[in-house]
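haha ok so turns out i had the wrong file open the whole time. this is the CORRECT one, sorry everyone. sequence first:
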Amino acid sequence: MEKMKPQTYATHRRWEPLFHFFALPVLVLIFPAWSIVHLYRHYPAPQSFVFLVFAFAIAVLAVYARVFALRVQDRLIALEERLRLERALSPDARATAAQLTDDQLIGLRFASDEEVAGLVAAACAEKLTREQIKKRVKSWRPDYRRA
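then structure:
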């Protein structure tokens, strides 16, 4: 098995080159732009309108396919974190953790078990966002399975 690079806040974002730098730009930017040029050059040809609508439909499909997958993954991460907090926290801290939003739980997934109690308290008291929580993690627990 290939050795994974250590993760930090600065390196935890995952980029898939074929998706992020080829398919998505083509489907969201180039394909609709080309269809607008085609419509302009061949106006009022009906197939140009159909082509434009089709191009925008494909662009929306590409974006939403990614968004829907990330939403499902976020729900699973929040569930995993709730289960972890039940195991890792004291009864008093669990009551505090029950107030966390899914967004805050997703930020906590990178915190080690040793520091998660302090971050839970801070997240609830200070209403920290996902990014603010991740920036406070000192002992990073990597997540290599993010889609």
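The first helix runs from residue 17 to 42.
again sry for the mixup
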